[in-house]
């Protein structure tokens, strides 16, 4: 395994040993400027290589695919928070997720890495991807993660996009979206 794959997995899951990988960390789900800065400082170069397609060989192993998805899907959400660049490599991440699932790589992973392998589908504004997300995340057997996947799916069913991204992506919000965004818990 490459040094950078090991660095990503150790940073994100606190271990490269699958049996010891984290299944939940608060930093994954809450806005934290220090965590964002740490990712930017430690992984900007890896992200840029991944974004340019220079790390595609990582997708040929289960843990390599997970590390590549984290570099393309999770890291930009932290590094470029509140900017459209946060979503710039989402399509690349989804392609790797599809490949990994087709190869059966997800079946060889513990809960934490499997979840992050699947998240590019949950982050998609496509109804087809949302359906895949719910199906995949339900296989984890974690009720909380499954409920969150369904919440994402319901937003896409209702609006065909995530309204909380509108400002960052320069999209006008409809009255219905504005009303939705004013509700508690409407943002991911």
Automatic annotation (TrEMBL):
Keywords: Membrane, Transmembrane. Coiled coil: none annotated. It comes from the Bacteria. The keyword Secreted does not apply. InterPro entries: DUF924, TPR-like_helical_dom_sf. This is Putative transmembrane protein.
